[in-house]
Amino acid sequence: MGEEIKQGAREPESARPKHATFSVSAALFEELGERLVSKPEIALAELIKNAYDADSPTCELTLTDDEVIVADRGHGMTEQEFLGSWMVVSTQKKSAQRFSRKFRRGMAGSKGVGRFSARFLGSVVELTTVAEDPSQPGMSTQLIATFDWRQIAQQQTIGEVTIDYYLTPAQPTDTPGTTLRITQLRDEAKAISTAKVRSDILRLTDPAAGLEEPAFAFKEAKIARSSDRDPGFSVTFHDSAPANADEITPNVAAAILNAFVGRVRIEVTELGLLKYDVFWNRGKSPIATGAFPISEVASAYSPEELKPGLNAEADERGLIKSVAQIPHLPLTDNLHSPVFIDIRFFPLRAGTFSNLGVNGKEAQKWVSRNASLAIVDNSFAMPAYADSDSDWLGIDASKARNKRDWLSVYTPTLFPMSPNAKKDPSLNPMLALPRGTQLIGRIHIATRKRPPDSASDEWLQPNMDRESLRDNGAFRLLWHISRFAVEMLAHFDRSARLEEEDRANKERDRQAHQALASAIEEVKSAPDIAPPHRERIIGHLVEAQERVQEASAYAESSRLSLELMSMMGVMAGFMTHEFEKTLGNLKGAAALLQNFAAASPALAEAAATLNRNEEALANYLAYMRLFISKARDPHPQAFKARGQVSLATKTLGSLALAYGIEIAIDIDPKLPGPLVPLAAYNGIVINLVSNAMKALVPKLSDQPRRIRVFATNDGNRHILVVADNGIGVPEYLRKRIWDPLFTTTGEEDSPLGSGLGLGLSVVNQVVHRLNGRIDLVDKAPPGFITAFRASLPLQPSAR
Amino acid sequence: MRVLMIEDEADFIAKVVAACGSSGKITLATAIDYGLYDMEIVEGTPVEEQLLAHLSALLEREPVDLVLLDTDLSRAQARLRTQTEYRQAFQSIGVPVARYRKGQSQTPLAKLDFLRRLSRDGASAIYVAPEHRDESALAHTLVPWLLHVHDGFAELTRRLEDKAALLEADEGPAGILAALLGRPALKADLLGYTSPNFFFFPMGEEDGSAVKRHATQLGYWLHNYILAFPGPILNEVAAAAFLNLTPRCFRDPRVRQLLDSCKYDGPFNDLDAYYWKNDLGVFLDTIDGDLANAKELEGIDLERIDDSPYAAAYYCVLTHEPIRRDQAAVSPDWIPSGAGVTRIKESEFDELGPMLRG
After folding, report:
1. Does the distance separating the beta carbons of A669 and B350 come in below 8 Å?
2. DSSP letter assigned to residue A35
C-alpha cells in the first residue's frame, strides 16, 4: 500500500483524478412508485402515514372509479417545506426528526419516500396544501402543484424535471392541511375492491383496535402543552362504499377483546428490560408477572456463541449443531426499539363468550376474521405480518407438526418443561399452543433510521418496501420475544386446564359420594325390601362409599405429598454429611459404654446393640452415597446381575435379619445384567425387595418369611422376578398398587415404616423408560404368594 | 516428635491431646496454637501462595515433624482453609501429612472407594485407617501408629541425606527408592508403581529443602502404593498367599522363623510384618518350590489356599484375605501394575466394582 502511494506521488500532473457524479434518471420515480409498493392498500397506507406525521386528526379517503383523494387536516406545507422536503427524495429530515412537531407522534413515514406511493395509484397527482405562513402570523398560504408522472418519466435526469406550482394567500375558509388528488388511475388501482381496501386500510391504520396501546407511542405527548393534546387519528372514507356487513361497532369489538380467556402483555424498554404480565379469564389483575433483561438469554445465542469450533459439525445455517431445531438464529442482544405486546387468546370452548351480550358464534367468527399478530411500527401495521394467514410466528406450523418443544429461546428458561410433561400429551404445554385463528394481538415497535455512525447493523429496520422488517439479528430477537408471548399462553392454558380438570374430578367425587349416601338412605327406608337383603345391599353400598372416600382422600393428598417429597431431595445432601458425623458419635458412645461394661454387663449389651445399628446405618449411608452419585450420571453400564442383586439385598440385610426374613438369590454369578444405568437396576431391586419385606412383616412370626430373587436372560431380555410368601395383594387393589403414594401399610401397621409410598409407581416409570415392563404376576411361583416380574431389554436399542 | 493437628472439633482434639500427652513421646500443637484461625487473606495474591508463605514462616519458627489433618473442616466456618489447600502447602514444604476422616464404621463399599481414592490421591498424604483412630483407645492405636509413620519418614530422610547424590543422578523415583532400600535391582519392580503417579515427582527442582521434600514424596509413594498394594514387598497375608498358605498357618512360629531372613527391614517396617517377595521366591527355589519340602516344617499340616501345592494365591486388597486365582476378578486400572500379588475377590468386586466405575 505504501508503495502504491509513493508511485502515485510520482505520477505526472496530467494523471490527476477526475470527478464523477451520479445522475439520476427521472424514471427512478416510476421504479419507486410502481415497484416499491406491491398493493394499493400499501400505497394508500403510506400516504395516510404522511397525514399522521403532519399531526392531522383524520385522514379522509375518497375512492371512486376515476380518482383517489387523500385529504388531511394537518399542518400542511409552506412553500419552503414543499421545496425543502416534498421535492427532495429520501430526505434525512425524517430520520433526524423522531417525533411530529405538534403532538409529538412517533414518525410513521420514516424514510421520506412514501409520497411516491401515489405514483402506484395514478399517473397524475394534484397536491393542494394550506399552511400557516410563519413569516406572517395569522396568515396562511395555499400551494397547488400538479405532477404528471408520465411526462416526468420522460426526462433524462431528475434535475431536468420542473414542476409548476402556484402559491396564493389562503382564503379564510381554507383550513390547514394537505390534499392529494390522484387521477388517470392505473389498472391496479381501478381493479381494487373498495370494500376490501377499506377493511385492509383499517387493519393497517387502526392497529390497536381495542387492544391496549403502547405507552411509548404517547411518551412524548405527555410533555406537550395541554392545549396540544393529541386528539387521536382516524381514517374515514368519504364515499358510498357499503360498510362490510361483518363489521361491528368499536364498543362491541372492545367487549369481545376484553372477554379473553388468556392475555399476555409484554413491555420491552429501550434499555432491554422485558416485563411481562399474564391475565386469565377476563381478569384485570395479572396471575403472573415477571421481568428480566432480554440480553441475558439472547447473549447465549449470539453469532459468536453459535459459531461451531474448527472440526465441529454445523447445521445448515452454519451454526452449532445443538441449535439446529431452534429457528430464527443467531440473535443480537439489542433491538434499538421499545416493544409492546398485547395478545389475547380466545379458544374455541364452551363459555368463552358467555355473558357478553353478543352471540357467541358471531363473536367467535369475528375473532377468526380479525385474528392476527401484526407487527405495528410507529402506529402502522406492517402488511407482511398483519394478514390473518401470515403465520410469521410459526404457530400454525407448530400445531400442524405437533411440536413438543418450546421454540422461543426464552420459554425454556422461564417455564422449563419437565421430561414427564414433554412426554405426556395430556401435560405437554406446547400441545396446548393456541391456534393462529384464536389469537388477536399486536406487537408494537418504534423503528427509527439507524444513525450512520452506529457500529452495529443489527437494528430493527423496515425494508424499503415497508411491508416487512429486515431479516437480521434484531428481527430474530423480536421473533423470539413475540413467540415467547404466545408460548406463555400455552403454558398457562395447560396449567389452567389441569386445575380445571382437578376441580371437575373433585366435584365428580362429591357427587358420587352424595349419590351413594342418598342410595343408602333410600334402601334403608324402602319398605318392600326384605330386611336380610336390605342389610346386604346396605353393606355393599357402605363399602363402596368407603372406597370412594378413600380414593378421593388419596387423590387430594397425593399431589401435595409428591411436591413436598420432591422438595426434600435437598435434604439428602445434608443428611449424608451430618449422618456420617452422627454415626461417628454413635461409635464413640458405644466405645464409652464398653469401657464401663465390666461394672455393668447390661452396658455391654447396649454397646453391642449400638455397634450393630451403627454398622447397619453405615452400610445404608455408603450405599446411598454411591447410589446418588450413580443416579446423577445415569448412563447404561455393563454389570453382572447377581452382584448387584446381592449388594442391594445385603444393604437391606440387617432389617431382614431383624425380622427373620430369609432372602435367597437364585442367579448365575456370571449372568450379565441389562445394559441400563446401574442406579436404575439397583433401585428396581431395592424397591421390589423392600416391598416384599413389608408384605412379610405382618405375617405371623411362627411361619417362615421368605423372599426369592430370580433372574435369567431370555433372548434379548433380562427377566427379574422377586417373589415373597407375604400377605399378598387383594384382588381389588391389584391395579391400584401402581398409583403413586398408594400403600397398603401405614406407618403404625408396619415396623418397616410406610416409606414414601412411591416405590412401585416409580419402579413402573423407570422400567417403562428403559423400554421394559413390570407386572404383578397372576400366579406366583409355588410356595410364594406374590411375585413381581420385570423384563428389561439387554441392549438399550432392543424393545 | 512434634505434631500439628488441624481439626475443627474441640472434643476430638481433646482426646488426641490426652492420648499424645500420656505417651510422653508426642507433643501436639493445634491449629489454634499455630494461629491458623487468625490467618488473614488479602486480595490480589492467590490464596495458595499466601497459605504457603504463612505456613512456611510458622514452621520456620516452630518446626513440626508431622501434620495430622481432618478431611472435613466445614465446622470451622471458613476460618480455616480447606484440607486440600493445607495438603498442597505442606507438600511444597515437605512435611508429611496424615489425614483422617471421622465417622462411621468402614463398610465394604467405603473400603473399595477408599482404595480407589488412595491410588489416585495417595501422593499428598497418608491416610489414617479407621482402626488407627479408634476413639476409645487412641493411646493404643493412633499414637503408636503416628510414631511408626514418623519413624518411616525419618528413616527415609536419613537414608536420602546419606545418599543425597542420588538426587543429582538420573535415576528417577524408582531408582532412588530402590537404592535407598538397598536393593538397586528392585528399580524394575518399582517402575510398575510409577506409571499413574510419576508426575508427583518433580525431581529436577533443587533447593535447601529438596531432601526433606523428596523424602516425604518417596514416603507417600512407599506407604500408599508399594506397601498398600503388595507386589515386591508383601504384608503377612500377601506373603502367605504368595506361599499358598492360609494366614493361620503362616503365623505358625516355625513358619515365621523359617522365613525370618526374608523380612523387610526398611522404612515403615514397624507398621506391619513385611517380606521381600523376591527373597521368598529365592527361598522357595531352595526347597523345590514348596514350603512342604522344608525339613524344618516336617510334621506340620500346611493349610493351602489352592489345593495344588505349587499354585500361588493372591492377596485381596479389599477383604485382606488370600484368594485363589479363580476367585480373583480382573484388576481395575487403578491397581498399580507392579502390584503382582494384589487382586480383588470377584464376588465382592461384582457387587461393589460397578458402583465405583466412573
Report:
1. yes
2. I
Q: What is the mean pLDDT of chain A?
A: 81
**CB atoms closer than 10 angstroms to residue A505:** 13
Provide, as residue numbers in chain B, all residues whose Cβ is less than 8 Å from the Cβ of A647: 109, 351-352, 355
Q: Which residues of A touch B353 (CB under 8 A)?
A: 643
Q: How far is Cα B352 from Cα A602, in angstroms, rounded to an integer? A: 37
Cell of A402: 405437533
Q: Which set of grid coordinates corresponds to residue A458? A: 443489527
* Residue found by looking up cell 410502481 in the block: A34
Backbone φ and ψ for A723, nearest 5 degrees, come out as -120, 150
Rounded CA separation A377/A442 (Å): 10
B117 in contact with chain A, both atoms CB, cutoff 8 A? no
Q: How many CA atoms lie within 13 A of A466 on its CB side?
A: 30
pLDDT exceeds cutoff 60 at A492:
yes
Q: How far apart are CA A100 and CA A107, in angstroms?
A: 6
Residue A626 with chain B: CB contacts under 8 Å: 109, 113, 355-356
Residue whose C-alpha cell is 421520506: A112
Give the torsion sign (CA, A171, A175, A176, A178): negative
Looking at residue B104, what is its pLDDT?
66
Q: What would the DSSP string read from start to end of A317-343?
A: TSSBGGGTTS-S----S--SS-EEEEE
Determine, for residues B354 and A626 on separate chains, whether the beta-carbon distance falls below 8 Å: no
Between the alpha carbon of residue A179 and those of residues A78, A130, A234, B154, the distances in Å are 14, 9, 16, 107
Q: Tell me the residues of A at the B interface, defined by beta carbons under 8 Å apart.
A: 577, 580-581, 583-584, 586-588, 591-592, 594-595, 611, 614-615, 617-619, 621-623, 626-627, 630, 637-640, 642-644, 646-647, 650, 669, 678
Which chain B residues are within 8 Å of A641, Cβ to Cβ? Answer: none
Give the integer Cα–Cα distance in Å for A52 and A62.
17
* B200: closest CA of chain A, how far (Å): 28
Chain B hits for A640, CB-CB cut-off 8 Å, are 350
Distance CA(B280)–CA(B263), nearest Å, equals 9
Closest Cβ–Cβ partner in B102, B105, B347 for A669: B347
Alpha carbons A253 and A265: distance in angstroms, whole number = 19
Closest Cα partner for A177 from A46, A40, A41, A50? A50
Per-residue pLDDT, averaged over A92-99, amounts to: 59
User: Considering the entire predicted model, what is its pTM?
Assistant: 0.54
**Grid coordinates standing for B144?**
503408636
Chain B CB contacts of A642 below 8 Å: 350
Cα-atom radius of gyration of chain B, to the nearest Å? 22
Whether the CB of B14 is below 8 Å from some CB of chain A: the reply is no
Distance CA A150, CA A119 (A): 10
Distance (Å, whole) CA A587 – CA A610: 7
**DSSP SS3 for A441:** strand
- In angstroms, the CA B81 to CA B58 distance is 15
User: Could you tell me the three cell numbers for A729?
Assistant: 395383594
Facing residue for A637 by CB, picked from B105, B349, B357: B357
Residue A673, C-beta contacts closer than 8 angstroms, at least 6 positions apart: A638, A639, A640, A641, A644, A681, A711, A718
CA-based nearest residue to A211, from A401, A374, A378: A374
Name the residue in chain B with its Cα closest to that of A649.
B351
- A394-429: burial string, b at 16+ Cβ within 10 Å, e else: bbeebbeeebbebbbbbbeebbebeeebbeeeebbb
pLDDT digits (tens, 9 = 90+) for B264-284: 999 999 999 999 999 999 999
**ipTM value of the model?**
0.80
| Residue from A578, A610, A619 whose CB has the most chain B CBs within 10 Å, to mutate | A619
Cα–Cα distance measured from residue B160 to residue B176, given in angstroms and rounded to the nearest whole number: 9
Residue with cell 399431589: A559
Confidence of residue B240 (pLDDT cuts 50, 70, 90): very high
